[in-house]
Design brief:
Length: 98
């Protein structure tokens, strides 16, 4: 079982084509080792890199995300967090691209 913090994030106003970075923490709150991975739903504008994929019980890692908006207006993006290849949590973030 994993816990992800934060699961939502608002960048506010962002210039088009300017990358913005942020990180979320993933913690293994279960009693067995887990494998953590990500599934971006917009591969052209979002990258997600897990620092450490294999987590023992109680261990934490970061997922480093980079969002590069390519369209003007309100943007809402989602990255799935996988636990042992099953999607368990979604990280969602938004911005107003100007």
């Amino acid at each position: 079982m994993i816990e992800v913090k934060p699961v939502t994030f608002d960048f506010g106003d962002l210039p088009i084509n300017k990358s913005k970075k942020f990180s979320v923490e993933v913690t293994n709150t279960g009693v067995k080792k887990v494998i953590v991975d990500t599934k971006p739903y917009c591969s052209s504008c979002t990258t997600a890199k897990v620092v450490k994929h294999h987590l023992d019980p109680g261990e934490s890692t970061l997922i480093n995300l980079v969002f590069t908006p390519t369209k003007l207006g309100l943007n809402h993006k989602v990255v799935g967090v996988l636990e042992n290849s099953n999607e368990k949590t979604k990280i969602s973030f938004s911005s107003n691209v100007i």
